[in-house]
Design a protein that fits this description.
The protein is α+β, with helices and mostly antiparallel strands. It has 8 helices and 20 strands.
């Protein structure tokens, strides 16, 4: 007993010495970690990574612009960031470095989770924390604005979203190069995503006919730029917008060629299942140049046999793990679409993958002439509602003799055979690579 008391006194004396040496009379060893608060720790993260979508009237369901909104959604937010479901980023990590990754750091995730668990304290609004730098978006300059010809109010479909295509006139009388694209949704609450296609002169008249035949603004184009969901066109992918993404310049010195007589086609995917329809008039903003150092194009990577004979791309009913692959030399396609000679190879600057609702995984690989395989992009958990272009931090060279290889897996849980098609109830397996001449 005496020994215990003596030990306690010795411990008390030690603590007293430490307390006197520590500022404010607080024992340094016993100092509690600083409290995580909304204004000092959480709001900077939400503003830098989340409120581009999670804002009143935005595409995301939970606004997170104010303390009251974040407080109400704290548990859902903590869970979403903890499992890395938000912010959306679906490329496999550790493969290569991509630009404009909105993913949170381990420290940011811990801060949000700790804040939610500890009662979500408000903190001091007068002394906010250091801002988190947002992902850079936007164009260095805007040369042309192309709004939809007139507003369109989306419709509730029979179990489907409303896909609508709006032809945009192209007025330059000489060959011009698009060097950057920024797509601005007019009504973010109903606009799910937007794709801008380039219709060359040979296809421009067909697009105009589809537009004229539909009494509403634009024409219905569920699943692709085709009005009937079946007829293909020689149309190039120019750029796209999805929640959380923004416009940007193309890689320096590159641009996509547009010849006189072309049309741009803006395809808008409207989602009105959780909000009332409202008029939309989205706009495409472009930066242009009369010439560029290196011509570029979005290269589609796909088996043309699937496109020309849809029955060759089969997903039998109630089958899982269905695999489709394609490997080929993209050089002839680059020469045709890009208008330049890729005989010496070309450089690859970004990649995207596309499937529909039954997609599960997808990947795009460069098969080198030496036999080595280099992974460009892999999506291990496909999400039809979050599709984007992943720009490489460093361009990747494609040399003569190399090949591009595409692999997709699907789970067909339906009771019907599914084949290739434009409709979202059909399926696809396509890669897109932004390539430029050397």
């Amino acid at each position: 007993m005496a020994a215990t008391a003596a030990a306690a006194l010795a411990l008390a004396a030690t603590v007293a010495v430490v307390s006197l040496a520590a500022p404010n009379g607080v024992a340094a060893a016993a100092k509690a970690p600083p409290r995580t608060t909304y204004f000092q720790d959480v709001k900077p993260i939400l503003d830098g990574r989340c409120t581009g979508c999670h804002v009143d009237g935005g595409i995301a369901p939970l606004p997170l612009s104010t303390y009251a909104e974040a407080l109400a959604a704290r548990n859902a937010v903590a869970q979403a960031v903890r499992v890395r479901a938000m912010p959306p980023w679906h490329a496999r990590r550790g493969v290569r470095r991509y630009l404009h990754d909105p993913s949170l750091t381990d420290g940011q995730i811990s801060a949000i989770v700790r804040w939610a668990r500890n009662g979500a304290p408000r903190g001091d609004a007068v002394r906010p924390g250091k801002p988190v730098r947002p992902i850079p978006t936007g164009l260095s300059r805007v040369d042309v604005r192309l709004p939809m010809p007139e507003p369109y109010t989306p419709k509730h479909g029979a179990g489907h979203d409303d896909y609508r295509c709006f032809p945009l006139d192209w007025t330059p009388g000489a060959t011009t190069y698009v060097t950057g694209v920024d797509i601005a949704p007019g009504a973010r609450a109903v606009v799910h995503h937007i794709i801008v296609y380039l219709a060359p002169p040979a296809s421009a008249s067909t697009v105009a006919q589809w537009d004229a035949a539909d009494p509403e603004p634009g024409y219905r184009c569920y699943g692709g730029p085709s009005a009937d969901g079946r007829q293909g066109l020689g149309i190039n992918f120019l750029a796209g917008w999805a929640p959380g993404a923004g416009g940007s310049d193309f890689p320096a010195g590159t641009g996509q060629r547009v010849v006189p007589g072309s049309r741009l086609v803006m395809q808008v995917h409207y989602n009105v299942t959780s909000t009332a329809p409202r008029p939309d008039r989205s706009t495409v903003r472009l930066s242009l140049a009369p010439s560029v150092e290196r011509r570029a194009v979005y290269l589609p990577v796909v088996d043309l046999g699937w496109v020309l004979s849809p029955q060759t791309f089969r997903l039998p009913a109630r089958r899982r793990g269905i695999v489709h692959t394609f490997t080929g030399d993209p050089t002839p396609v680059v020469r045709y679409l890009g208008g330049f000679d890729p005989a010496r190879g070309f450089t690859m600057h970004s990649a995207a993958l596309h499937m529909h609702r039954l997609g599960r995984t997808a990947r795009l690989v460069v098969q080198r002439a030496s036999g080595r395989h280099e992974l460009l992009l892999e999506i291990p958990r496909w999400d039809f509602d979050w599709q984007r272009d992943y720009r490489f931090a460093k361009p990747v060279a494609f040399a003569p003799g190399d090949r591009l290889s595409l692999r997709c897996t699907h789970d067909n849980t339906t009771r019907r055979l599914v084949t290739w098609g434009e409709d979202s109830s059909d399926e696809m397996c396509i890669g897109f690579v932004y390539v430029a001449e050397r």
